[in-house]
Every structure is written in C-alpha cells, then in structure tokens.
C-alpha cells in the first residue's frame, strides 16, 4: 500500500490549488464584474462582504483578511465610508483600535449585489446534478476552511 505523507503530497496540493485561481477568475469573477455596481471596486466589495460576515471588524483584521497593509486598506475604507456604505468607530476600551461596520445603505447594497451574483451564476450550475452541486459545495467549504487555517 502506498502511504502518502504530508510532505510528499504537499507539492501536488500546492500545484492543484494554484491552478484553481485562473479558473475561479475565468469562470466566476471576470464574466460577472459587469453586474457589480459601477462605483464599487472588487476590493471594496470584498471588504464589504467581510464586514458583513463579521458584523463589526477591526480594521487591522480586515486588512489581514484582504491581504494588505492597513495603509493600503485606508483608501478603500475612506471610499466606502464616503459613499455611506460603512462607518468607522473607535473602540472605547482602546482608542488605538478602529472598527468598521455596515450602514443600512451598505447592507442594502450587499443584498442587491448578492441577489444579482446569485441570479447570474445560478444558471451556470444547471449543468450539474443536485449531487454534484452538493459535492462542489462541500469541497468549496472544506477548501475555504483549510485555507483559513493556513499560516
């Protein structure tokens, strides 16, 4: 019996994972950028979805999630706040900590964007059986969980 060790399978996992990025972009991201609101960039939308998931999030944590430094996140947050989609608050217990949360306008925007994305992508999944769709859902959830645990 062939036993695989983490170090022997790691290169295969790395290569397969890296090959996912262009596919995700080609099949899911690029074709549907047109349905994004014109005043929102993909980075801003990513930040809004993360804020929505968290309810309220420290800006340092949001920058880490987005894969950027806080200084790089600042223009994104400034634009979102200026547009009325989110607000910054200072943590009363530690004034150095700044948190972000969505406004009602931001929540409404995400409901609309989410509905548009789902409506646009749902037909793409029609080629799969219900079982295949369920398997894909489980794989995507597992992959996200694995990636979140990576250092």
Topology:
Layout: H1 6-29, H2 42-54, E1 56-58, H3 59-66, H4 70-82, E2 86-90, E3 98-102, H5 104-121, H6 130-149
Antiparallel strand pairs: 1-3, 2-3
Give a written overview of the molecule.
The chain is mainly alpha-helical and 151 residues long. It contains 6 helices and 3 strands. The chain has helices spanning 6-29, 42-54, 59-66, 70-82, 104-121, 130-149, and strands at residues 56-58, 86-90, 98-102. A 3-stranded antiparallel β-sheet has the order 1-3-2. The radius of gyration is 19 Å and the shape is globular.
Amino- and carboxy-terminal Cα gap: 32 Å
Instruction: Provide the gyration radius in Å.
Output: 19 Å
N to C succession of SSEs: HHEHHEEHH
Structure class: mainly alpha
As laid out across the biggest beta sheet, the strand order is 1-3-2
Count all strands and give the number: 3
Q: Into which percentage range does the β-strand content fall?
A: 5-15%
Output the number of helix runs: 6
Major sheet: size, sense and barrel closure?
A: 3 strands, antiparallel
The backbone outline, from C-alpha atoms, is globular
Low-confidence stretches: none
Q: How much helix is in the residues?
A: 55-70%
- Mean pLDDT across the residues is 88
Quick structural summary:
The chain has 151 residues and is mainly alpha-helical. It is 64% helix and 9% strand.
Key terms:
mainly alpha; single chain; 3-stranded antiparallel sheet; 3 strands; globular
């Amino acid at each position: 019996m062939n036993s695989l060790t983490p170090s022997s399978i790691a290169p295969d996992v790395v290569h397969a994972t890296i090959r996912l990025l262009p596919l995700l972009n080609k099949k899911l991201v690029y074709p549907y950028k047109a349905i994004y609101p014109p005043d929102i960039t993909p980075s801003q939308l990513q930040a809004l979805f993360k804020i929505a998931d968290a309810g309220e999030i420290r800006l340092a944590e949001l920058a880490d999630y987005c894969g950027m430094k806080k200084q790089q996140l600042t223009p994104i947050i400034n634009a979102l706040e200026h547009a009325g989609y989110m607000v910054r608050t200072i943590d009363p217990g530690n004034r150095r900590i700044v948190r972000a949360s969505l406004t009602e306008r931001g929540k409404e925007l995400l409901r609309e964007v989410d509905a548009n994305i789902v409506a646009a992508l749902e037909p793409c999944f029609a080629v799969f059986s219900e079982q295949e769709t369920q398997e894909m859902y489980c794989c995507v959830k597992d992959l996200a969980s694995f990636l979140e645990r990576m250092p």
